[in-house]
């Protein structure tokens, strides 16, 4: 009976996930007690890594560049801290938090497509335009971005702020910022400039160093007003997912990205499986009107989310590793059989390959669509309901080192074979390709990006099953292999010493000083991750459980639950919370 509950609940969940048609869009991440003052802001998951409450004195919703200039000028004249927020606030770290009597500038109303130049294949848009808007509007003119993140709910400004990307080693690469040809950004100015300055940056222009800093800016240079992107003619893709044993994954991962334009991989280490995405352009004459609607991004009944979360909490409390492994295997099999949400005609999956236009296959986000339904349905992570609550550890490792890293993870799994079954419940480890970039805070070389999502307890003092394994993978990636953290994801530990890994980090700081000498668009968090201020690690009881520190004492773990600070099993320099 112990093992039947997760199996039954997951079957119920996937049945309802694949049949639900309605949804309840995410709520506004900013809340104010008095009109637009006395505010709090969170991320779309309802909790920052340190679970702190982010306060702001005021929020503003500009709807034009003129509004932005006015807001920045007033803020600069008052020496006021400012930060930029997006519609859905998807960054996990505290990038949106201002300091003190701070102002949040929301780009929610900066959501217009300004110009589509079909002849020159350029599109100019405001920074609050979402990826979904961009894809839809560009397709109407026969244009498309070749590579994007897989989730609709990101804004152009947010993607540039954090270096968001898709998956490819071809052409200019998979990062959105490498398709920017022009940008307008509003920054603090001198008194003689009216306390605000609008800069127009252009690719290969006189301000090339400024552009290379602004492409991935963490929001510390000012507010992006407008962006012009280089597009491509709308094309078709052909997609086939192939499941194989992971025995030779370390070799395949290094070469697979060169073989297929949109290649990625989903790795299930505890199941010893990997799913390869064989994905390439085909002629528009090839028949097919395929659609991608990933189950993880669909609206899910709140009751199902309650069952899923309660089941996993029960497994964690009982130490039910077998239940997690059975549930993980069922999740994998269901996704594989359902082609990860691909359909040949927008309705039914009939078989591979799935052929369709790029705008229908490059991203999805069904839970963003529709009208409010009293929270009967929600995105799976929506904090208004009892749904999924998780950590995301995401880093990129140079292709030259990726083979050894994968083999180290496999060694770890061979020591603890069921240790990553919990990751399978969140669809394994997504592996995407990203090329080196001229952006100062972009990827430094052609790399493989690893995206790991896993259970997070509502109680920060409660350890996870196999706490030590995921901590060791995190430290192995960041410290042994020099992995670069995704700026919009991760726990504090992943950012330790990260700025030193960027060859042009000092050049970025010079541009930051030029654009905002008073540091008005900087915050405690951005200063910490840029190496300008200490305090990134927060040493206290249980800090290692939440990734707020690397343990050095047993109290950083959970000694009351038998979790003590010990060396890693494969990466012996790691210090992890181990059940002893």
UniProtKB/TrEMBL annotation:
Q: Name one GO molecular function term.
A: FAD binding
**Signal peptide location:** 1-23
Q: Which reaction does it catalyse?
A: L-gulono-1,4-lactone + O2 = L-ascorbate + H2O2 + H(+)
Instruction: Name the cofactor(s).
Output: FAD
What is its pathway?
Cofactor biosynthesis; L-ascorbate biosynthesis
| Top-rank EC class of the record's enzyme | oxidoreductase
| InterPro entries (UniProt xref) | ALO_C, FAD-bd_PCMH, FAD-bd_PCMH-like_sf, FAD-bd_PCMH_sub2, FAD-linked_Oxidoreductases_BP, GULLO2-like_C, GULO_Plant, Oxid_FAD_bind_N
Query: Record's superkingdom?
Result: Eukaryota
Question: Where are the bilayer-spanning segments?
Answer: none
Keywords tagged on the record: Ascorbate biosynthesis, Oxidoreductase, Signal
One GO cellular component this record assigns the protein to is: membrane
Entry keyword annotation includes Oxidoreductase:
yes
According to its UniProt record, which protein family does this protein belong to?
Belongs to the oxygen-dependent FAD-linked oxidoreductase family.
Membrane as a keyword of this entry, yes or no, is: no
The name on file for this protein is L-gulonolactone oxidase
Example of a GO biological process term: L-ascorbic acid biosynthetic process
EC number(s) reported in the record: 1.1.3.8
Q: Which Pfam families match?
A: ALO, FAD_binding_4, GULLO2-like_3rd
Q: Which residues form the FAD-binding PCMH-type domain?
A: 52-234
């Amino acid at each position: 009976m112990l093992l039947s509950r997760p199996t039954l609940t997951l079957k119920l969940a996937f049945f309802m996930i694949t049949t639900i048609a309605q949804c309840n869009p995410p709520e506004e991440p900013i809340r104010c007690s008095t009109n637009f003052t006395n505010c709090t802001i969170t991320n779309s998951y309802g909790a920052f890594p340190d679970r702190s409450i982010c306060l702001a004195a005021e929020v503003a919703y500009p709807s034009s560049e003129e509004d932005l200039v006015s807001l920045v000028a007033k803020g600069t004249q008052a020496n006021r801290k400012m930060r930029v927020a997006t519609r859905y606030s998807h960054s996990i770290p505290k990038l949106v938090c201002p300091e003190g009597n701070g102002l949040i500038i929301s780009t929610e109303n900066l959501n217009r497509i300004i110009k589509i130049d079909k002849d020159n294949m350029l599109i100019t848009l405001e920074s609050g335009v979402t990826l979904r808007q961009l894809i839809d509007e560009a397709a109407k003119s026969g244009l498309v971005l070749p590579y994007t993140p897989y989730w609709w709910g990101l804004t152009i400004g947010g993607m540039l702020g954090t270096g968001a990307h898709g998956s490819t080693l071809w052409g200019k690469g998979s990062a959105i910022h490498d398709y920017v040809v022009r940008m307008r950004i509003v920054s603090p100015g001198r008194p003689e400039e009216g306390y605000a300055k609008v800069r127009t940056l252009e690719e290969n222009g006189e301000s090339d160093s400024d552009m290379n800093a602004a492409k991935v800016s963490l929001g510390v240079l000012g507010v992006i007003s407008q962006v012009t992107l280089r597009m491509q003619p709308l094309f078709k893709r052909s997609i086939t997912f192939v499941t194989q044993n992971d025995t030779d994954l370390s070799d395949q991962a290094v070469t697979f990205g060169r073989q297929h334009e949109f290649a990625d991989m989903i790795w299930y280490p505890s199941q010893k499986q990997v799913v390869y995405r064989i994905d390439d352009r085909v002629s528009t004459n090839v028949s097919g009107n395929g659609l991608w609607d990933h189950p993880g991004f669909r609206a899910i009944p709140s009751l199902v989310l309650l069952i899923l979360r309660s089941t996993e909490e029960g497994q964690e409390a009982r130490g039910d590793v077998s239940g997690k492994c059975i549930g993980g295997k069922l999740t994998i099999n269901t996704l594989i059989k359902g082609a990860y949400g691909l359909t040949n005609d927008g309705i039914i999956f009939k078989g591979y390959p799935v052929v369709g236009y790029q705008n229908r296959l490059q991203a999805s986000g069904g839970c963003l669509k529709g009208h409010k339904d009293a929270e009967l349905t929600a995105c799976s992570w929506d904090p208004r309901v009892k749904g999924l609550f998780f950590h995301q550890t995401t880093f990129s490792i140079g292709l030259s080192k990726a083979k050894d890293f994968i083999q180290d993870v496999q060694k770890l799994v061979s020591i603890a074979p069921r240790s990553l079954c919990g990751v399978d419940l969140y669809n394994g480890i997504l592996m995407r390709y990203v090329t080196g970039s001229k952006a100062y805070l972009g990827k430094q070389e052609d790399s493989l990006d690893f995206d790991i999502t896993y259970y997070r307890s509502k109680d920060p003092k409660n350890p996870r099953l196999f706490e030590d394994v995921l901590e060791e993978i995190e430290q192995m990636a960041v410290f042994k292999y020099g992995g670069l953290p995704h700026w919009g994801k991760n726990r504090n530990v992943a950012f330790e010493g990260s700025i030193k890994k960027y060859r042009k980090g000092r050049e970025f700081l010079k541009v930051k000083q030029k654009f905002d000498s008073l540091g008005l668009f900087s915050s405690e968090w951005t200063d910490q991750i840029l190496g300008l201020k200490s305090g990134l690690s927060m040493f206290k009881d249980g800090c290692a459980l939440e990734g707020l520190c690397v343990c050095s004492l047993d109290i950083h773990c959970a000694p009351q639950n038998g979790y003590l600070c010990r060396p890693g099993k494969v990466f012996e320099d790691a210090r992890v919370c181990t059940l002893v």
